[in-house]
Design goal:
The chain is an alpha/beta fold. It has six helices and six strands; from the N terminus they run βααββαβαββαα. A six-stranded parallel beta sheet has the order 3-2-1-4-5-6, with helices on one face. Helix 4 links the parallel strand 4 and strand 5. The longest helix has 13 residues. The two termini are about 30 Å apart. The relative contact order is 0.19.
Length: about 160
């Protein structure tokens, strides 16, 4: 994998839950350039594993931007027909998402969760990596922020159970 696109929109907890998967991807593909499409860019802006953070925008400009990155893998962490269609229109070879009747048609791999309902979102996100490889080492959220932001982030992560 040379270029990886991660797509995560939604609540702050859902976006934070992507960081363990990001850690696993970077360890397994250290030379890959990782871009993150998110509506919460502050979470990823200082992360050394992320080459570029992309903000949501209208479909055609976003399609042009994604095509320019030439990703060979896209992982859709939050179900969205718009972003699933975007990855297909950009002709990304490998497109992975959680099983969802609305997005499956656009994906090359759909992952059905074996975890019970109500399980932590970070664990569910890790399952999305299963079509790529098998991994066994632990991965936890890591934030790259100032000391002041770090104290706030630790409290917030603790409050939401991460």
């Amino acid at each position: 994998m040379n270029n990886i696109l991660l797509i995560s929109t939604g609540t702050i907890a859902e976006v934070l839950a992507v960081t363990p998967a990001l850690s696993v991807l970077k360890r397994n593909f250290p030379a890959a350039d990782i871009a993150v499409l998110t509506d919460r860019p502050d979470i990823f802006k200082n992360n050394p594993s992320v080459k570029e953070v992309i903000a949501p925008q209208s479909f055609l400009p976003l399609l042009k931007k994604i095509k320019s990155l030439k990703p060979d893998l896209a992982i859709l962490f939050t179900p969205s027909v718009k972003y699933a269609a975007l990855t297909a229109a950009a002709k990304i070879k490998k497109r992975i998402a959680a099983h969802n009747i609305m997005t499956d048609v656009f994906m090359t791999a759909s992952v059905k969760s074996a975890l019970p309902r109500g399980e932590h979102k970070a664990k569910l996100n890790m399952e999305l990596l299963s079509p790529l490889f098998v991994f066994s080492f632990p991965a936890t959220p890591v934030l790259y922020v100032s000391k002041k932001e770090n104290e706030w982030a630790k409290k917030y992560l603790s409050d939401i159970g991460i």
